[in-house]
Amino acid sequence: MPKRYPSTIEGKLSLAIQAYSSGQVKSLYAAARSYRVPYSSLYTRYHGTPSRSALSKIERCR
């Protein structure tokens, strides 16, 4: 089963994505290090995988 991240990690992931998208950091790896979040989580979230909390109950049960 995948890890469940606390809301603080979710917030940091969002901030890291915003920093990368706006050009404040040059790479996803640099954003992950700056915001101290797992690179793999940041990568998948940036490329469109929604957070587990964002999925509806029906989608989780599939």
Automatic annotation (TrEMBL):
GO terms for molecular function: DNA binding. Residues 10-53 form the HTH psq-type domain. This is HTH psq-type domain-containing protein. It comes from the Eukaryota. InterPro entries: Homeodomain-like_sf (IPR009057), HTH_Psq (IPR007889).
